[in-house]
Design goal:
single chain, alpha/beta, D-Maltodextrin-Binding Protein, domain 2, 15% strand, 2 domains, 343 residues, 44% helix
């Protein structure tokens, strides 16, 4: 009788240990096969961020242990700040949820901490499928042919308003690199800005998405109707290898760090992150699957059909870039903030 009671006690203890074993002890394959992987998008359906998410969702599960289904959910609000705060503070931290939000969200704590409830360096970065290269352009008849011309003769540039990338980048280039760009506000979006350039209302534009140029105005490039003066990014696009990257014009290391701070978000593009505290083995599986998806033939074919580029960074590369940006000396950060401000 005593032996039986003893055996029952041992069995009960074993069952208790199994029931209370930490989730991290579960195999990666068992974890991902038991539930879908949720991908939260900080924008409504139809936005570029949403398009990338749905392309990834169709293929990434094939490269995760357990081959889970990926479910895309949209959580728009405050330029995706709502979603970033949710992912950091409220989403499950077990590897079952990842999200994508504005590239500017990664830099927001440096520029304006209002409403920010996350630490960019504590997100678990998965990677980005593509950077976003914007370019400074001048209409061929304007007489502006090179970036140096922006320093000597200057140009007028179409923008939507003082808070637009075109206006911000123009102010930064004028302050840091000595250009003479005069922004003309009031054009609603890139389509109106490009029309203003074509009509000769302005000389060019300080910041136009190169992808938009390829889609909407490919003949401008093919027929030499514009001069591409500089690439606003940290990494040149292969087909623009003869066009200087904006960092090439820095006169010293401080100016280079300032420009890197301002333009890093272009290279960050369409970032994906998991919340803090995700178990290391699950994070490694997510990163590996993400990287493999970016090389998947079906994914690349669908991306090409959707006219989106695939030229991104791994999670480790994204983490390293953000650590460098957040290590920028305070004096340089203050210079950058002043340069970006209107007036």
């Amino acid at each position: 009788m005593l032996a039986t009671t003893h055996r029952r006690a041992i069995l009960a203890t074993a069952c208790l240990l199994v029931a209370t074993a930490p989730a991290a002890a579960q195999s990666v394959e068992a974890f991902f096969s038991a539930q879908p992987l949720t991908v939260i998008v900080g924008y409504p359906p139809g936005a570029a961020y949403d398009l990338y998410a749905r392309l990834l969702a169709r293929r990434m599960g094939e490269y995760l242990p357990g081959k889970p289904r990926l479910v895309v959910q949209n959580m728009p609000g405050a330029g995706s700040l709502t979603m970033a705060n949710h992912l950091y503070n409220n989403a499950k931290q077990d590897g079952s949820v990842i999200g994508t939000f504005s590239r500017g969200i990664t830099m927001l704590p440096i520029v304006d901490n209002n409403g920010v409830r996350y630490d960019p360096l504590k997100f678990n970065w998965i990677g980005t499928p593509s950077g976003e290269v914007s370019v400074a352009i001048a209409w061929s008849a304007s007489g502006v042919k090179t970036f140096q011309d922006l320093r000597t003769r200057g140009m007028t540039a179409a923008t939507s308003g003082p808070a637009s990338d075109g206006s911000i980048y123009g102010r930064v280039l004028n302050t840091v690199l000595g250009t003479k760009i005069k922004t003309v506000n009031g054009y609603q979006g890139s389509a109106e800005s490009m029309l203003a350039v074509e009509r000769g209302e302005v000389d060019g534009a300080t910041s136009i998405s190169y992808s938009s140029l390829l889609t909407a105005k490919r003949d401008w490039i093919d027929n030499g109707k514009i001069h591409i003066l500089a690439q606003h990014t940290l990494k040149a696009r292969p087909e623009l290898k003869d066009v200087p990257v904006i960092l090439d014009f820095a006169q010293n290391e401080d100016d280079r760090r300032l420009l890197e701070l301002v333009f890093a978000r272009q290279s960050i593009g369409y970032p994906y992150a998991a919340p803090p505290n995700v178990p290391a083995d699950r994070l490694a599986a997510l990163r590996k699957a993400f990287d493999a998806t970016l090389e998947d033939k079906e994914f690349l074919a669908e991306a090409a059909q959707s006219s989106v580029t695939v030229d991104g960074m791994t999670g480790a590369e994204l983490q390293a870039l953000l650590e460098r940006i957040y290590a920028t000396p305070p004096a340089i950060i203050e210079r950058a903030k002043n340069a970006m401000q209107p007036g």
